[in-house]
Design goal:
The structure holds 2 protein chains of 2 kinds. By secondary structure, chain A is mainly α. Chain A has 3 helices and no strands. The mean pLDDT of chain B is 84. Classes of the chains: A mainly alpha, B mainly alpha.
Amino acid sequence: MIGTIIIYLGLAFVFIGVIGIYRFKNFYTRALVASKVDTVGYITLIIGIIVKSGLNAFSLKVLLILSISLLINPLVTHSVVRSAKISGYKSGKE
Amino acid sequence: MKKYLYYFQLVILLTTVWLILFETFNVFLIIIGIFISLAIIYFSEKYLVDDRLYAFYPFNVFKLLRYAFFLLIEIYKSGLSIIPYIITGKANPGFVDIYTDLEKNIDIVVLANSITLTPGTITVDVQGHLLTVLWINPTTTQPTMAGIRIKGKLEKRIKEGL
């Protein structure tokens, strides 16, 4: 029950992030808002899954996936934004 | 003494991952896991880093867990503070330069990745002690003031040790 509520909360965070992607037109703003989906929304979803399934081998495996993806996620965001800056995208007002 | 403790926690960590991937827990698997962890440490020191792992990545599991918990709270805080920008649709992102006074390379890497992981800021470039950060709402472009707003608490936590 509690796990289901936490999963819905995570989905709400993902929903807000996706609205942000459609609302902004500038590339940099989109990159900043999209990182909300794959940090806050993702962590909340995974915590919900762990609470729902209880403490067993499955939830430990999910925890392992969470820790690995939290290590890789900033590298991906960094390389995308850095390549955009090098190719000369302009940052401007919305 | 501290060095042996470091290798002990590295073996414990690798064996735990090995057991999680097997999904079963018994004595035979634990012994095999310990031997394979020792082999992994030996070969990665010999061929991959060419030095002692202790000199490159000196970490403490408990301090690392404490830092991860603190970072989780920071992620949620800045995740909530970004919602008004999405609702109003007004944002004016820009690049700011900030300086860090951390010494070791591994500490600077952890700081840059933590800044990227919190929504609203992305580290674009690192040159020595100078970090170029993309910020969703740059209230100031002055390096010291922007530095306090972006990395103040994170840097203080990293200085206490990882």
